Amino acid sequence: MKIAVYCGSRPGNEPIYAAKARDLGEYFGRAGIGVVFGGGHVGLMGVVADATLAAGGKVYGVIPEHLRDRELAHGGLTELHVVKDMHERKARMAELADGFLALPGGIGTLEELFEAWTWAQLGLHRKPCAIYNIDGFYDPLLAMAATMERAGFLSREYIDMLIRADQPDVLVDALRRYQPPGEKWR
Question: What are the residues facing 132 on neighbouring strands?
Answer without folding.
Answer: 165
